[in-house]
């Protein structure tokens, strides 16, 4: 019986031993950078220069497109354009963080489309109700926008809070998902 080691994460040792396929797609939200390993999507961002991949994953082999990547990219573009119509919860992600960050990211993936949670609710969901600021920091440390839907987290007062790619994109994603927005 042979034992195969699991594929390394892009986030381990600068991506050593991984192939990262990537491309930039034009969307109505602006250019969207998507990068993925065999394990899953490791980077999804808006308006970000692809050169960031060399900074984040200096030891990975970075390849533009190829293989099954164009189909994945097309599906993610559809998810950005019509998130209420496309189920993308089964698209795997390749992320690594502290145990707390990873628990927050898993909780984010459980928030249904069209709903929001507050930072306080998110902290309570992961069993750390007093860690509201830490939940916000973990939310902000998310490297895979949209698929780990950090845009679904708002402040307790109903305001949008922050979003790495700008509040306009956050508001547009929430509108597309049918979430109620503050007046």
Our measurement of the CA-to-CA distance between the termini, rounded to an integer number of angstroms, reads 61 Å
Content of β-strand: 5-15%
Rg over CA atoms, rounded to whole Å, is 16 Å
Count the helices. How many?
Answer: 6
According to CATH, the fold-level topology of the largest domain is Arc Repressor Mutant, subunit A
CATH superfamily of the largest domain: Winged helix-like DNA-binding domain superfamily/Winged helix DNA-binding domain
How would you sum up this structure, described in words?
The protein is α/β, with parallel strands linked by helices and 183 residues long. The protein folds into 2 domains: 13-81, Double Stranded RNA Binding Domain (2-Layer Sandwich), CATH 3.30.160.70; 99-177, Orthogonal Bundle (Arc Repressor Mutant, subunit A), CATH 1.10.10.10. The protein has helices at residues 51-56, 69-81, 99-109, 119-125, 132-140, 167-177; strands spanning 19-25, 32-36, 41-46, 61-64, 117-118, 153-154. The chain has a 4-stranded mixed sheet, with helices on one face. β2 and β3 form a beta hairpin. The chain is globular and about 45 Å long.
List keywords for this structure.
183 residues, alpha/beta, Double Stranded RNA Binding Domain, Arc Repressor Mutant, subunit A, two-stranded parallel sheet, 6 strands, 31% helix, 14% strand, globular
